[in-house]
Write a structure and sequence with these properties.
By secondary structure, the chain is α/β, with parallel strands linked by helices. Helix content is about 40%, strand content about 15%. It contains 11 helices and 7 strands. A 7-stranded mixed beta sheet has the order 3-2-1-4-6-5-7, sandwiched between helices. Strand 1, helix 1 and strand 2 form a beta-alpha-beta unit. Helix 5 crosses helix 11 and helix 9 crosses helix 11. The chain is globular and about 55 Å long.
Amino acid sequence: MTTVVIPAYNESRVIGRLLGQLVPAAPPRELRVIVVANGCTDDTAEVAASFGPCVQVLSIPVASKHEAVAAADSTTRDFPRIYVDADVELRTEDVLALAAALREPGVLAAAPERVLTLAGRPWPVRWFYDIWTRLPEVRRGLWGRGVIALDESGQRRVASLPPLLGDDFAASLVFAQHEQAIVPDAHVVIHTPRTFGDLLRRRVRAATGIAQIMRAERPPSATPRTRMSDLAAIIRSEPRMALPVVLFLSVAALARLRARRAVGRGDYSTWLRDESSRLDLGPRATAGHAPGKGRQPECR
């Protein structure tokens, strides 16, 4: 049994979009989906429950992804487990491809390839991601995908981590390169910010999360970093990318500056959530209105 765990904090706008692609085609007895509504003040739990018995919905009072994952883990002993952010898109076949990768000898953690939505985004957002997606550390890292799949050994490692702002980044650091896999047959759709301000908020959150990890009791000996040599290589191979590289460096510098202020205050709890990527979705998806579906899915 493959278990999909979806922590969700006030995600009623987007949770149906994800579940609409996971649940209707779920093979019987092969896939279990757990949605943990944590500290929600909207109807996230009700939207998730509208998908019927295929989805187990838990509600906890505290708004904490760490607590939400722990609550889901306490209800199941099945592996592999695939942890999915509520605002991405993942299909049943992607889940099964990730589960298959974890059956390979020595692979403890896996993640899908990224598919970024950039249509209609302003040029600074498009330029930033043009550079970001070319960086070697970004291409091979488990983080920044909104999805991580773990076998039992991998889950024990990740569960031992303390609550952290950059939880996906920290989780990826506990695995050696040979213990993880980016699965080419699995894809996750990531909805990028619609405004430059929301992009900056995301980058400040990422920089603050990295700073928190480096100040932990037992920090990692090294973390993936953007190297100037990588940026220079991009320009050498594609001279037209010089201006996007300048923009990328400017965003990174500004994000680090603002993160430094947050770290100085000891503020590792402000989420700086990007709301723009959750807007303009059309009618909200529920089980009866999932794309291409006209009835509630049946679980056998």
